Amino acid sequence: MDGDLVEDGVCGVLIAAKLGISQPTASEHLRILSHAGLIRGKRIKKWTFYKRDEDRIKAMKNVIARQV
Q1: What secondary structure, in 3-state letters, does the chain show?
Q2: The sheet that has 10-11: what strands, in order across it?
Q3: With 0-12 CB in 10 A as exposed, 13-18 as middle and 19+ as buried, what is 27?
Q4: Which of 28, 64, 30 is nearest to 49 (CA)?
């Protein structure tokens, strides 16, 4: 895998392995997080690397804090 951890994020295959879940299960959860804007996916060759969207996470935390 040719992705850079800082620049590109973590490969979905490695995320699945670390969590001890199947690749399709990880992909579905990562798709949901991506759709919510909390992570961004980047295709490199045949793999997708995921990275947190820190600005979006911060904005969501602020929204939640105002609601509580």
Answers
A1: CCCCHHHHCEEHHHHHHHHCCCHHHHHHHHHHHHHCCCEEEEEECCEEEEEECHHHHHHHHHHHHHHC
A2: 10-11, 47-52, 39-44
A3: middle
A4: 30
Residue type, 23: Q
Q: How many CB atoms lie within 10 A of CB 12?
A: 19
pLDDT digits (tens, 9 = 90+) for 7-40: 889 999 999 999 999 999 999 999 999 999 999 9
Task: Categorize the per-residue pLDDT at 1 as very low, low, confident or very high, splitting at 50, 70 and 90.
Answer: low
